[in-house]
Amino acid sequence: MTHWFHRNPLKATAPVSFNYYGVASGPAASKICSDLRSSRARLLELFTDLSCNPEMMKNAADSYFSLLQGFINSLDESTQESKLRYIQNFKWTDTLQGQVPSAQQDAVFELISMGFNVALWYTKYASRLAGKENVTEDEAKEVHRSLKIAAGIFKHLKESHIPKLITPAEKGRDLEARLIDAYIIQCQAEAQEVTIARAIELKHAPGLIAALAYETANFYQKADHTLSSLEPAYSAKWRKYLLLKMCFYTAYAYCYHGQTLLASDKCGEAIRSLQEAEKLYAKAEALCKEYGETKGPGPTVKPSGHLFFRKLGNLVKNTLEKCQRENGFIPNPNQRKW
C-alpha cells in the first residue's frame, strides 16, 4: 500500500572550518580538526543524496558525532565538560521559520541541530520509500524502522541534550518542546499507518483495523493540539496535514467498524457508521484542498489525488452500498407468509 507523508524542509547550516591556530597546535590535534571538518561536510552531503541509505547515514553520523564528543565531554571521563565546548560558533536555520538562523557558541547546540537533521533525514527516507507504487513487505518494514529511529532520536535530543543548553531553546523554533513533541507523535502516527496497511493486506479482522485506525487518528489529533499555540504563519500547513490525516483515519475507523457491525447482522448500525465515514472522508477531502492552498514549509501537492486517498473513498462507497443492499434483503418480521 502506498502512503503520502508531509515533510518540513531540512535545517541549513553555515560552514565550520574547525581551524584553531594557537590552540590546536600539534599534528594529532590538527588531524582531529581536519577529520571533524571532512566528516561534517560528508554528513551534510548525505542529507540531500538520494542514493544514501540508513547504513550510510548511520556510519557518517557516528563518525562525526564521535569526534564532536571531544568538544563536549572531558577526555579524562570525568563529569566535567570539555574546555573546547564554547570555542566555536555554530549557525543553523529552522525547519519552520525558513532562513532565519539561530546561532550559539556551544558544541552541544551543534550536536542537537545536526542530530535533528539526522532524524529528519530518516523521516524523509521513510517518506520516499513509502510513496512508491508497490511497496514490498521488506520496504514496509524499513519504513516502519526508519520512523521509529527518527522518533527515538527526537526523544533522545529532548530528554538528554536540549536541557544541557546554556541558552534555552527559542519559542516556536525547532528545539522547543512543542515542536519536538509534534515530530515524535507524527513519527508514531505514520509508523502505525504502515501497521494498518499491513493488517489490511493480511486481511485481519475489521475490528482490529478499526481500533488501529482510531488510535492513529488520535495520534494526529494530539500532534495538532501540540502545535495549536504556535504562530499560524509557520505552522498552518503542517497543521492542515495533521487534521486531514486525523479525519482520514477516523473515516477508516468508522468504515471498518461498519464492516464489523455488518458481519453481526446489524445493518442499520453499519449504515450509520458508513455514513459517518462518508462525512469524515468528505471533510478530509476539503482539508486536502486547503492543504494545497496553504502557504508554508512543506511540499506543494494535491493529497486528494494520491492513491492512498482515493482507495479509501472507493472502500467507503462500496461498503456503504453493500450495507444498504443487505439491509434491503432483511425480511420484515410483521410480513404475513402465505
Explain what the structure shows.
With 338 residues, the chain is an all-alpha fold. The protein folds into 2 domains: 6-19 and 27-203, Serine Threonine Protein Phosphatase 5, Tetratricopeptide repeat, CATH 1.25.40.280; 204-328. Helices cover 63% and strands 2% of the residues. The protein is built from 9 helices and 2 strands. The chain has helices spanning 27-47, 54-68, 107-130, 137-161, 177-201, 206-227, 232-263, 267-293, 307-329, and strands at 90-92, 102-104. Strands 1-2 form a two-stranded antiparallel sheet. Helix 5 (177-201) runs antiparallel to helix 6 (206-227). It is elongated and about 90 Å long. The model is unreliable at 332-338 (pLDDT under 50).
Compact overview of the structure:
With 338 residues, the chain is mainly α.
Query: CATH architecture of the largest domain, please?
Result: Alpha Horseshoe
Taking all Cα atoms into account, the compactness measure Rg is 25 Å
How many structural domains can be distinguished in the coordinates? 2
How many strands in all? 2
**Strands side by side in the biggest sheet:** 1-2
Percentage of residues in helical conformation: 55-70%
**Helical/strand content category:** mainly alpha
CATH topology-level fold name of the largest domain: Serine Threonine Protein Phosphatase 5, Tetratricopeptide repeat
**Largest beta-sheet characterization:** 2 strands, antiparallel
Number of helices: 9
Q: How far is the first residue's CA from the last residue's CA?
A: 52 Å
The CATH class designation of the largest domain is Mainly Alpha
Give the amount of beta strand, in percent. Answer: under 5%
The CATH homologous superfamily of the largest domain corresponds to: alix/aip1 like domains
* Uncertain stretches of 5 or more adjacent residues: 332-338
Mean pLDDT: 89
Shape, per Cα inertia axes: elongated
Helix-strand pattern: HHEEHHHHHHH
Domain BRO1: 90-338
Family: Belongs to the BROX family.
Protein name: BRO1 domain-containing protein BROX
Keywords: Coiled coil
